Amino acid sequence: IEGLKQDRIGIVTKVHHAAIDGSSGSELMVHLFDLQPEAADPPPKEERDPEHIPNDLELLGHAAASRARKLAQLPKLVGQTVGAVSRVVEGRRDPTRAVGAAPLTAPRTPWNGTLSPMRSVGFARVDLEEVKEVKDAFGCTVNDVVLGLCAGTLRQYLVAKDEPVPDTPLVA
User: Are 2 and 126 in contact (CB under 8 A)?
Assistant: First the structure.
């Protein structure tokens, strides 16, 4: 996203938090979008003092304390699980609620094949003020506009490559 203050740009990514956390994702982006031809030197290894090695009695104490903490959390976990299952069952029974696609039901596209080590990167310029105008006109968020741009770009790619455009939503 261009048009930010001080000639900065922003990169929009969408990755499920089950796959990567925020700080790891930021570090990954630094390496993925590095345009230098040579790889950067790895950071030097930290020199650390040897840690205290616990004896058998200390290990047993730590294990017992950990087990006790887990058992104390069990009632809360059971309650959360029952609530989550109830919401899923309720959603499945209500035909008016969208509950998401079933696993493995994504339509066939060039992107849901076998992964390979080959990667290509493309860049596009989008004026942030224009994105905000669209956001205001449709009463949505900047994120909604960016996702719409991404969806439209994917559709244009399929059409340009004479690939069939699916009738059902792409599922990630």
Answer: yes
